[in-house]
Fold each of these.
Amino acid sequence: MENLSLIPGKVGAAPMQNIGAYGVEIKDTFQELEALRISDGELVTFDRAACRFGYRESFFKREGRDLFVILSVTFRLDKAPHTLHTSYGNIQQELEHRGIQHPTIQDVSEAVIAIRRSKLPDPAVLGNAGSFFKNPVVDPLVLEAIRAEYPDVVAYPAEGGYKLAAGWLIERAGWKGHQRDGHGVHDRQALVLVNHGGATGQQVFDLSTDILRSVYERFGVELEREVNIL
Ligand SMILES: Cc1cc2nc3c(=O)[nH]c(=O)nc-3n(C[C@H](O)[C@H](O)[C@H](O)COP(=O)(O)OP(=O)(O)OC[C@H]3O[C@@H](n4cnc5c(N)ncnc54)[C@H](O)[C@@H]3O)c2cc1C
């Protein structure tokens, strides 16, 4: 769970979109949850299979939306030896930068927090919902076509093909740091839309639509919003 450090939010919301970061998702340590069924007040236990976790997805974000209140979540954590996941993103570089050769769980957590603080705006200071779009998974042929024109495209092997970094696509489509009417695209992480103050939800949504269109026109890749639209 150390890789999930500094993801803002409450524990009851964590299974909703199977929160994840740096190659780890909540489903990796999830055991079960207890939820109140709103229709009849019954308490229902969901194990991992019943939650139908996917990439930023779960039963509760789809079919079960607004039907349950998650009351408690049980996690199963490793006892020693614990396997650390430090190969994703810049965790390894951050540990090296700190002169740490044999990291502890706390070292990894602190490295993740430092990386996130350097890249992501603090919602208490600058309004944002974190990553606005999911990283799209594309066919190897699509990746090849993009790579022919952009050799530095960021991609990881994933189920069904290759996961592209949505932030990279948005940045390359020219949106990083874009500003309009009090809102825009964060200047350090193009995946994050920000409200500098006063912009409406509709304006932020319209900006996200413009970004979707422009990324599709440029790369032929359809982005999907990660956020819930209320
Ligand atoms: C700066 C920033 C960085 C972020 N980084 C990440 C990241 O790295 N990875 C990631 O996965 N997410 C990330 N997020 C998104 C966010 O942190 C998660 O979605 C988090 O789980 C939201 O928690 P919350 O308590 O604020 O939930 P809310 O936003 O209040 O609720 C989210 C949804 O869950 C429902 N819900 C909340 N609690 C319950 C409950 N107990 N029972 C039933 N339904 C419930 C709500 O109705 C709503 O539909 C980031 C957000 C920000 C602002």
Note: DSSP finds six helices and twelve strands in the chain.
Amino acid sequence: MEAIETIFKRRSIRKYLDKKVEKDTIITLLKAATAAPTAANCQPWEFIVTDEEEKLVELRDKLIFARYNAPVAIVVCGNMKLSHKGPSQEMWVQDCSAAIQNILLAATSIGLGSVWIGIYPLENNIKPLKKILNVPEYVTPLGIVYVGYPAEEKEARNRFDEKRVYWQEYDPNRKHRAKDKPVIGHY
Ligand SMILES: Cc1cc2nc3c(=O)[nH]c(=O)nc-3n(C[C@H](O)[C@H](O)[C@H](O)COP(=O)(O)O)c2cc1C
């Protein structure tokens, strides 16, 4: 699949077939993750791959926005011992986000479904996840990518809105339709 086609095709898949994802395929996804760019090539990431039903059930039980039947969870973490120190430290979030997006796109391109589950910065998510997966204090889980063979199909979306684009400089007078956003998500 062409990269541009994959980018438009990717959607969040929340229903999966009861079918394992082969280890080699998971490794391919992790290779895609680590092909992402990182600030000063820091690569502060670590990955916890969980495909045991017991752990997956625990994750679903504790994370209310992660109650989907995916056979694999890839937890993308930033290791503060590997990250930059000082004001650049927070770059780990962007580095690991790029890795997550690469996993989503790689999964789509090989016919797998996936969804990004946000963990950081919500303490209510971070704490139980760290406990379940035995994650030390200096490692922070940014997000989970659920992966599996899709049991639902979704149309590609076109969200391009030229009102969100400014050419040359920002125009603060441009009016946007106000949209109330909930305090937390609503999955
Ligand atoms: C940072 C982040 C956190 C997200 N967290 C969740 C989540 O906890 N549960 C979930 O079902 N989807 C989650 N999503 C997926 C979004 O809901 C989804 O991307 C959005 O609704 C757009 O739909 P699409 O991915 O099909 O284009 C998250 C996405 C991002 C980028």
Note: The chain has a mean pLDDT of 95.
